[in-house]
Amino acid sequence: MGKDIKFSFSLDGIGPHYDKNKIDDSFNSSAPRLAIYAENGTGKTFFTRMFALSENGANIEDNNRLISIDKKTGTFKFSIKSPDIEYTYSVDLEHGKPPFIEQQGKKYLYHVFNSDYVSNNIVSTDFSPSDGNVTGYILGKENIDVSEEKDQLKTLTEQIETQRNNITQKLSDAKAELASKKINRSLNEFKEINYDNIFGEKSANDTDDYYTLCQQLSLLKNIPEEIPVIAEKQTDISCDFLLETETLLKTKFNKVHFDEKAMEKIKQVRNHTSFFENGVSIFENQQEKICPFCSQELSEIGIYYINLYKYYFEQEESNVLSDIEQHIRNVSYLINIIDSFEKKYFVMSERFLRYRIYIPEMSNFCPEVLPKLDDIKKNIENISKQLVIKKQDISKTDFNISTDIEAIKNYILKLNDISSKLLLNSNKLQRLLDDSNNSRLSLCRKICNTRRNILINECKIYINNIKELNSKCEKIKASIKEKERKAKTSKREVVVEALSMFLDYFFHQKYVFDEKTFGISFKGKSLDTKAKDVLSDGEKSIVAFCYYLASTHLLINNESDYEDIFFIIDDPISSMDFNYVYAVSDIIRHLSNSFPQIEKIRYIIFTHNAEFMSILYRNRIPKLSISMTKGKLDKMNSELLMPYEYHLNDIICVANETQIPTYTTPNSIRQVIETIMRFESPKEDSTEKYILNNPLLCKNSYIYSLMQDGSHGAVRKALPFSAETLKEACKIVVQFVKSKYPAQINEN
Q: Which of 439, 622, 636, 734 could crosslink 35 through cysteines, CB 3.0-4.6 Å?
């Protein structure tokens, strides 16, 4: 822009700006950096809202609030005219309709800070500047051609998709195959046959043969409805009596001696011991001497023989022979018991083998073969032979059947053990057959797992192709990213960096910006929703202003857009301590440092704070300062803005003796000291204490008294201070200011 720029403002029917209070004024300036001072209630916020419409838009309800009371329409126009540019920004408002906004000659990006901005962007988020949902990029001025890389990436992506489709098809076929076998899709093992597991080559632990498992599943479906008891517990065979047999054989017994004729008779009946024992018992219980078997009357010889038998049977030999007979029968019966045991075992074994085919998990158990009876038959027969010999001569003891007993015992133990194993597995098989659903479920799980392993092998070539293509894609993406990095910047990164910088400038690490939570942190802990309770009102204003400045980058899409930024700032120092006011002023002065992308900084600053306006003016921050009253904009009178500087100038002149003291000199001293005190110690409420604590000011004991007496008009009870006293006081005050802010003395 040229050196002579004309700025024009026109407001009519907007807020308080209507009828005789409408505004229509123009000013000249060397640069588009303006400051407008306005008292509260003069309509400066409505002024800024007109610019905000271009940034945020407005609905009909908002539009109606902007129009003056009892008015149906409103207009706003801001124009810039110079040898280099002719620009107009206009807004037409009509009640019940959205605003009509138009920019002619150029299009500025107005970025507005006012109470609406704070309410909508900061207060609504509990003073945590944003939800962090900042997206998009700022494109650089240079255009980077990555079309070739993107074409390559597109081709590779299509190839990857083809390979993925191959895997997906294989996956679909495998699931259809399993479904055809009536395998439930809700099984976890079925669900785990998915793209991620196949591509990640996450195989299952099952190593069984898939096709064998399928055959077993088919068998399970054919389980008969009525299944008999497969096996029953057999009574364990015992051979403990053989130990008694061995004892009997090794024991020596005495024979009973009769004459030869009697012995012949005894031998005839000895093999029928029980028969004759019973006959003798009947004979003794009857009164008549009649034969218990033929009912004939017994002769003396008959009675003799009966008594002879009776006597014989009562002797030891008879008892021993009876025991031997019983042992012979027991040994002989042992063979029958073993034979019966084996026959039952064979029946149960055949039944187990017949039904185990329906339960795959039982297929590994096969009933054991029983040892042959012939293996111990000789041992049993040998014991019988020994008993027969003992029967012939009960006194004989040279018998040895220990080896036979041990062989029989081991044989029977093996029979019992084998039978117990068959019973155990038969019971398990019986349970599984009775509850075949569990077996079927277990088998279905295994089938799913083994089919998944097969599928991984089938897709191996596609998986490797995808990995290779992905690797190529990553390299191309990295190349594109590197090229685009030079051509574009992440808005989020820029906003985070700027916001962190501005917060640090004001708070010096007291409060910092936490990128993870996209909020304010205090002593390393996120304030989150507590920010509104922790921050003072002034600190809240600072946070709002910092975010406003940082969010400027959100308006930018292309780097060239920075040249179109126009800052509209309304009272950024609300509720701030005085030292923060100076910091805000410094930030505005150095906006070009904060935004090096903007070659020409443009702004209009609105404020109702006279001291802030004075600081801006004194530091030559705006190029044009304007005061606004109802219906009028005027170029500002600097004398009204900077009382501090003029008071300080009077003091310097008195101290340098280029001007004599006047009745206003004590007031000038008070103005300078209290202004600096408020800046340095905003909480200090005692001017006297401040003076006494300062090593320079306390050298002159009259300073406090004369400023109180001379500026507040107290009733005098003594002579007024002399001119020399005032001169000395002024010299001390000049030294005091120079020691703290030498530039102020030099400038004056």
A: 622
